[in-house]
Amino acid sequence: MYPYKEQWPVINESAYIADNVVITGDVTIHEKASIWFNTVIRGDVAPTIIEKGVNVQDNSTLHQSPNNPLILKEGVTIGHQCVLHSCVIEKNALIGMGSIILDNAEIGEDAFIGAGSLVPPGKKIPPRTLALGRPAKVVRNLTSEDIAEMKRIREGYVEKGQYYKSLEKNV
């Protein structure tokens, strides 16, 4: 953890932060969130807010533009090696591995962004839809099976994060 201009990250004590994560500045991480290996979260331009139960997987980068925060709502899953920049990801959405979500994009509640997608600036993805491609386009509504799988992934990461967090007490 590093401050930026005397602003330190605020991290809930129940959140799991892997050893080699870099977090700087105006970043708030809520309870039972998990931030995985080699992730960088820079809060040196605008705030980053990571709500309860969010998981940000390995090798992801989170940053912002001036006066334009990055907000990850409760239960969001960010897959491996994603780049998020000044966007809003609504509750329980899933961002697939290697995706890029740019300024002022909004990903709806329970939406799924397919792996390797690019969501351009200002794009709005509706709730409970699958969007993919470069640029990302909605291809269909999600099924109850899709939503159940997203929930399984989300809950698995909360469980894994809490397991790794428990190991910190034994070191």
TrEMBL record:
One Pfam family in the UniProt entry: Hexapep
Coiled-coil ranges per UniProt: none
InterPro entries registered for this protein in UniProt: Hexapep, LbH_gamma_CA-like, Transf_Hexapept/Carb_Anhydrase, Trimer_LpxA-like_sf
Superkingdom per UniProt: Bacteria
Protein name: Gamma carbonic anhydrase family protein
Species assigned in the record: Salipaludibacillus neizhouensis
